[in-house]
Amino acid sequence: MQTATPRFSQGADAQGQFGTFGGRFVAESLMPLILELEQAFNTAMAEPGFLAELDRFQAEFVGRPSPLYFAERLTALYGGAKIYFKREELNHTGAHKINNCIGQILLARRMGKTRIIAETGAGMHGVATATVAARFGLQCVVYMGATDIERQRDNVARMRLLGAEIVPVTSGTGTLKDAMNEALRDWVTNIDDTFYLIGTVAGPHPYPTMVREFQAVIGRETRQQMLDREGRLPDSLVACIGGGSNAMGLFHAFLDDATVRMIGVEAAGEGLKSGKHAASLKGGFAGVLHGNRTYLLQDDDGQITDAHSISAGLDYPGIGPEHAWLHEQGRVEYTAIDDKQALEAFHTCCRQEGIIPALETAHALAEVSRLAPQLPADHLMVVCLSGRGDKDMPTVLRLMEEQA
Ligand SMILES: *Cc1c(COP(=O)(O)O)cnc(C)c1O
After folding, report:
1. What is the pLDDT of residues 193-220, one digit of tens each?
2. Best of 386, 390, 395 to mutate for ligand 1, by most ligand atoms within 8 A of CB?
3. Angle at CA 256, nearest 5°, toward 253 and 259?
4. Domain containing 289 — which CATH number?
């Protein structure tokens, strides 16, 4: 008897689990809220009116569809696979995060919520959240580690310009994981009017599914654009992974196409052996954080440890539970790229293509530089250009001065 082809795109079960990962590990008082959110999300996604409104904002406010661009000079340089960029860096606010923020804010408004809360590490998700909150005239409170506030002054200024209130978090190490805990605490105490806008495919169910659905537009567009341009599906997809939302967004529309190879790229920081990295799959083990079970960076006592990477946006100490499952299933390959490799790919992209990528994105580009030369010229490879590098100028300039 033949066994059925596994359907990797099927997603979470009724408990919000991807195999043994995901779920909803939250305080009992949060349960009704989580269920209300799940219900509202499912209802909205089945309603043509909601989807039409979402499409309109994606087109007019975000600037979708983003182009699929043939990176001709990079292709010639590596001398192998034909490389395409999915240009998410051209979106309003300069990255893919806004795709998800638009979806969630429309949902929040439908649910009658008037106050938006979010957590942010590098500040990019905070800026995208503050942007949509301003657009819809909703109050916005962003939890941010005190250490991160010091490190990310520009984004703090942007959020304030957009009308958001920044709440410094001093518990723990004053970084992203502490901000996440504070945001969850706020949500429990302000149940009636507050919507928690999570920025990646993490958190308790339904967040990993909801964020993936709002980001899946990346892969749907890529699929159509590649069919239009090359008359067939791509052979491989490459994306960087912080929590994993731009990667899930690109991968999802192709998960059941067995011929499409997928590679998720974590940040190896100063190297996996150094302990200073952000590679939850390659250098962590399973545990519970932020309301779900997944691979996490933790010490031997199960305490969550801080992530390290040249790119602040990959500094998430976990990875979305759907990735943990796809890893276990062997459907998606996961690799890790260190700071030095990412920086080299960053400079190459600037010089060869006239595009300054985000340092997060440079991790995916470094993986492309490793893979493309080994592949034939008719291999079609798509890399998600998750964001632009303007925000990284201070980091890059400092590194260039140190090396000079
Ligand atoms: C936040 C961010 C990432 C990492 O987040 P994911 O949820 O893994 O996509 C990657 N690239 C850019 C430009 C970002 O701002």
Report:
1. 999 999 999 999 999 999 999 999 999 9
2. 386
3. 100
4. 3.40.50.1100
